[in-house]
């Protein structure tokens, strides 16, 4: 017989979850943040069932992994790679299986093992749908990346390929692909992995830090591409007040990605990619792509009203990039 | 015509909410925590529609106030009264009125004006029900209150009266009261105020700090009574491994509270009271109640298996105190 969280009650549930958290956290309502020598950054992310995740597509461990990595990615794209702690609030229907909750936390801990930090507290409540609310705290570090830090004449850099997560989701849901084409089994595998187990760009951030030419300041613009590549570029343009020109021949695509304009569309507006999209001086960009093999210069910035163009001067339709706006 | 958040979309919604947040927070996914000289405490609280709040009983401003004060109370009952910042995650059905959301934030800001801090970031998502997830950060301070800090021989102190919020809720919902009795209009007013606009015990905490006898260390046990007076005492007993003896004649009741055992029950197990329940040495307790007029010694702790007794040695049934366990 399946044990639900209603069967065991809240106190016993919290007892079972103790092993996933810093010890001594259950007795009190607040937790101490360990790091206090450096300035701290905090983010908050909500994952709502059937909007951000679904049991039909991902198991609880994968969902737990994704909850943590989504938050970690927000810290990384701000320049923070020393992850300090997480608080986890969960809303669960009382019919939720205990095993599901334990697997969720196991998936979280698998990610924490790799990216750092610890779960230091949280809250739980019953509710009609599953919701996971995480606040992640990391130490501030250089470069402190902001969307608004770009200057005209920067190179735009993507630290990895885009569109894989959307392809993975489509494959998992047996949905139509952009065109009928035979995909390599390696691409299929990479796409499903990208969707189920996204890997935030912690190594790319460290390479960025290590490759800064001494003659340059730490000024760098960046964001992650969790809302899609084009939306990231758009965000940088809007916050920095400049234009972007993208090279049609330099789209950051998987080596096995089919050649087709509809497939390009998925690369540009796939979403749930967790790469860094950066706007940095050319010298730094060149040093980075030399050191970090999946990084690629995808275009440049220039003066002008925020907008995005192809290098043939054609304006890029960015309406599609807003598909991740809720409501 | 009513404007919903679907009508204006997420970007415009965030624009409208900008004025409630620290400036410059919208452009990036993370926020900087201002304080970094002191060690920080963090809590996380989820408020779920129809479980923790309902539009039928409270307006959006009151709900906003309560979201913040619930979190502030968690920090205060840990000894932190210098509130630094809040992150606010909200899940909203897309049919939610824009005015409701703006009023929610106004209510939050009314509380922030009094208790300190600022909204530094957050997240929003659509969802079938309204959920508000807040993480509050405050500076660590002495005494660092824990439930597990009590020692046998301590005095148990309540910093204010209990049961008012439950009475207020019953009045607002026109539910049955513990007995048929005429209530004073002042009690009615205090009860409704306690339910709609709970006031965390920040002044009591400061009085506690100021009245510590020099001869004593900062060792003090404490919690807030958001889950009810008896549940607070029980939590201290369980975490500290001791027993509590409560004085039947010293229940912390409103001066106009009816004399009746059913009414005592509401005082003990009302919940959503935001007073401090403390376990501290007698000398400190006496100094505190002298200085802080609504504080009252309600009993004492002693060695023994965690349990609660009346001073006539009758064991207190604490099953009722678990009504705030979810699931």
What does this structure look like?
Two copies of one chain form a homodimer. Chain A is α+β, with helices and mostly antiparallel strands and 327 residues long. The first copy, chain A, has two domains: 5-139, 60s Ribosomal Protein L30, Chain: A (2-Layer Sandwich), CATH 3.30.1330.10; 147-318, PurM-like C-terminal domain (Phosphoribosyl-aminoimidazole Synthetase, Chain A, domain 2), CATH 3.90.650.10. Chain A is 33% helix and 20% strand. The first copy, chain A, contains nine helices and eleven strands. Chain A has helices at 5-17, 60-76, 98-115, 164-172, 185-196, 202-210, 229-240, 261-269, 282-291, and strands spanning 30-33, 40-48, 83-92, 119-126, 131-139, 155-158, 221-224, 243-246, 276-280, 296-302, 308-310. In chain A, strands 7-9-6-10-8-11 form a six-stranded mixed β-sheet, sandwiched between helices. In chain A, strands 2-5-3-4 form a four-stranded mixed β-sheet, with helices on one face. In chain A, strand 3 (83-92), helix 3 and strand 4 (119-126) form a beta-alpha-beta unit. In chain A, helix 4 (164-172) packs across helix 5. The longest helix of chain A has 18 residues, at 98-115. The two termini of chain A are 39 Å apart. Chains A and B meet through helix 1, strand 1, strand 2, strand 3 and strand 4 of A and helix 1, strand 1, strand 2, strand 3 and strand 4 of B. Strand 1 (30-33) of chain A pairs antiparallel with strand 2 (40-48) of chain B.
Blueprint of the fold:
The structure is a homodimer of 327-residue chains.
Chain A: H1 5-17, E1 30-33, E2 40-48, H2 60-76, E3 83-92, H3 98-115, E4 119-126, E5 131-139, E6 155-158, H4 164-172, H5 185-196, H6 202-210, E7 221-224, H7 229-240, E8 243-246, H8 261-269, E9 276-280, H9 282-291, E10 296-302, E11 308-310
Parallel strand pairs in A: 3-4, 8-11
Antiparallel strand pairs in A: 2-5, 3-5, 6-9, 6-10, 7-9, 8-10
